[in-house]
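Today's session is about reading a structure prediction critically. Students often jump straight to the picture, but the first step is always the sequence itself: look for stretches that repeat, for charged clusters, for runs of hydrophobic residues. Only then move on to the predicted structure, which in these notes is written as discrete structure tokens rather than atom positions. Here is the chain we will use throughout the hour.
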Amino acid sequence: MAAPSRTTTVTDRRTGDPERGASPLGVLVGLVRTARPRQWVKNVLVLAAPLAAGVLLQPSVLVATALAFVVFCLAASGIYLVNDARDVEADRAHPVKRHRPIAAGVVPPGLAVGVGALLLAAAVALAALTSSAGLVAVISTYVVVQLAYCFFLKHQAVIDLAVVASGFLLRAMAGGVAAGIALSQWFLLVAAFGSLFMVAGKRYSEHRLVGPDEAATRSALKEYSESYLRFVWSLSAAVAVTAYSLWAFELTTPESGNPWPALSIAPFVLALLRYAVDIDRGSAGAPEDIVLGDRTLQVLGVAWVVIIVIGVSVA
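Below is the predicted structure for this chain, in token form.
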């Protein structure tokens, strides 16, 4: 008689309940994967306002910015856990997302929601401990808007693009409000439309990836055509470049004798064009994956940061 084979499945995919003998370590690893620590790289956007203002390395600003970073790491991971628990059936119909721990039956949805709620509460509590009313307002807005997205806004065409883009915008705002820095209209415009550019590009790639099954994985996708999404990311890029150039030229005046802000336009535009190559071929998935996997984009990003740091130092 053949020996019984060992099972490699730790949960029942139909119910999401752990099977007898499920490994607690496996569930813990699944929770960590669902929290997506790899995507915490998005939260470096909290550095944008202090960096542009030239005050990032001041001790008080650095501490406030670091706390804002941690707050968004907690909140973003909490949202990912809740979102994946809500989307478990749709994710199982997706060619890539079906491998996520909850969709694959590794993590029970109820446990994911409970851990997610704890992380969201911790994010708001930590923001409150910083005594920054602005940071509390920003993170609270982020949590409310993203939860609304998880439960129903993701199914509303156009609104879903705006909500996801708002997550990037709020990250960019968080560093400024935490450090008490006034946010300029140019900064907000660049952050808003740069975010919309990335989100529309991600949707374009997803639209091409899932093809005829798009409605089963994300219902709002059926409302978009590829030409419409191309229009959105093209328009967003144009507004972002225009706003950034106006900001740079405003700082680059004969009186200031500081050419660096204007010089920073070059790597900024080249980085957008490089990112657009990935969008156009339909391979622009998560923004952090594109940035971490593209050496040329990384070099352009470093060049931009160096020029900005020199520019604000001279000013």
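Discussion point for the tutorial: The chain has 14 helices and no strands.
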